[in-house]
Design a protein that fits this description.
The chain has 395 residues and is an alpha/beta fold. Helices cover 38% and strands 22% of the residues. The chain is built from 15 helices and 14 strands. The protein has helices spanning 61-74, 106-114, 123-136, 156-159, 165-171, 180-194, 248-255, 261-270, 273-278, 284-289, 295-318, 329-334, 336-345, 355-360, 382-394, and strands at 2-9, 13-21, 25-33, 40-46, 50-56, 84-91, 102-103, 141-146, 203-208, 212-218, 221-225, 324-328, 364-365, 374-377. The strands form two sheets. The chain has an eight-stranded mixed sheet with strand order 5-4-3-2-1-6-8-7, sandwiched between helices. Strand 13 (364-365) and strand 14 form a beta hairpin.
């Protein structure tokens, strides 16, 4: 049996799954939360509902990868690393170069690095992860699956900005999006649960985690998305500011006497969002815990809900309604109260939650019978979507 290791590195987390193929059986899975932060949490699930968890301060991505491989052997999930026959990496930015999954060659790796301007928080880290795994497993083929590929066919009116058109064309300036692997999975799974062909579903998909994005899906294809040229824009995120008036940047450079634009970009990417507004943490759980006593915590939650409402409402308008609104991602899947807050703000469209179904948090429809549009909770499974793309390349 072949074993494929799927690596999904986010801006503040690293998720992974080890699949036995072609059965698509998950042998083990794990996650490192709070990457490079105090109290990094390393978790591995394996065997018959067995779990190992430990806390290591400031565990970076490379250390997390090495720890994962060591624990897989220590826990006897695998006997040797030679059992792993393929490694696939989630890569955020493929630009217009990569429209499908590819085997990683030196040229592909160089291109991923060159595309870092499109995803400065992700592509460098993912390229480093590919190099780490290639050194650790030198005889194993590495693959890249791109988050941006779902959005390569956006209608031009939604894909481009209102810049001089010749600059748009010459420098490939467009909305590339992120979380495309997740949004595609959610689209396919929603169609399955609704009993409709993928080509017949119109959806608004909400991938809400430390990184957050929304997508409008029309006839099963991406129609619009909240992230843009880079993953910085869109809704408020854990450490990313989301939408900001571009005029704020030169203004801040002037008043703060900053000459390097990268310093401002670092602030927008790493020190803003929920962390910047709350002054507490990028973690919604920690912010919600102080919501009733800390005005900045409450403000951060209110802004998060507000920005999501604005995008979701605009997408429902663009699509002239939808078959369903889908909640997914760490926050979307696990925070019933936030789901209720967002749906309440969208009540103008006739959305209503069933309180019991929402509280239960199971996959499927969580809206009430009289909701004008279905509301669904679908735990995203980017790893399964990735392993299927890799399997198709190996055939």
């Amino acid at each position: 049996m072949q074993k494929t290791l799927i690596i999904n590195a986010g801006s503040s987390s690293l998720k992974w799954q080890l699949f036995e193929m072609p059965a698509e059986t998950v042998l083990a899975s794990g996650m490192v939360e709070r990457i490079s932060m105090p109290g990094s949490i390393f978790t591995i699930k394996y065997g018959d509902h067995q779990k190992f968890e430990t806390v290591v301060d400031n565990l970076d991505q490379n250390q997390a990868a090495q720890m994962m491989l060591a624990e897989l052997q220590r826990l006897h999930v695998i006997q040797t690393l030679a059992e792993i026959t393929a490694v696939a990496h989630r890569v955020v930015a493929g630009g217009e170069t990569f429209k499908h999954a590819v085997e990683v060659t030196p040229a592909v790796l160089d291109t991923i690095k060159q595309l870092s301007n499109f995803a400065p928080l992700h592509n460098p880290m993912e390229a480093k992860g590919i190099e780490t795994m290639a050194q650790t497993l030198p005889n194993v083929k590495q693959y890249a699956v791109f988050d941006s590929q779902f959005f390569t066919d956006l209608p031009e009116m939604n894909a481009i900005y209102s810049l001089p058109y010749e600059l748009t064309q010459k420098y490939h300036i467009r909305r590339y999006g992120e979380h495309g692997i997740s949004h595609r999975y959610l689209t396919n799974r929603a169609a399955e649960l609704l009993g409709k062909p993928v080509s017949a579903v119109d959806l608004v998909t909400l991938h809400l985690g430390s990184g957050a994005s929304l997508a409008a899906v029309k006839a099963g294809k991406a129609y619009d998305t909240s992230m843009g040229f880079t993953p910085l824009t869109g809704v408020t995120m854990g450490t990313r500011a989301g939408d900001v008036d571009p005029a704020v940047l030169p203004y801040l450079m002037q008043v703060l006497k900053i000459s390097d634009p990268n310093e401002i970009m670092m602030m927008l990417n790493n020190k803003s969002g929920l962390l910047g507004v709350s002054g507490i943490s990028p973690d919604m759980r920690e912010i919600k815990a102080q919501e009733t006593t800390n005005p900045q915590a409450k403000l951060a939650v209110d802004i998060f809900v507000n920005r999501i409402t604005k995008y979701a409402g605009s997408y429902l308008t663009e699509l002239h309604g939808a078959d369903a609104v889908i909640f997914a991602g760490g926050i979307g899947e696990h925070n019933a109260q936030l789901r209720q807050q967002i749906v309440d703000e969208l009540s103008i469209f006739g959305l209503k939650l069933d309180a019991d179904l929402n509280a239960a948090g199971n996959e499927g429809v969580i809206s009430s019978a009289d909701s004008a549009i279905k509301v669904m909770l679908i735990p995203t499974n980017e790893e399964l979507a990735m392993v299927r793309q890799v399997a198709a390349l190996q055939q």
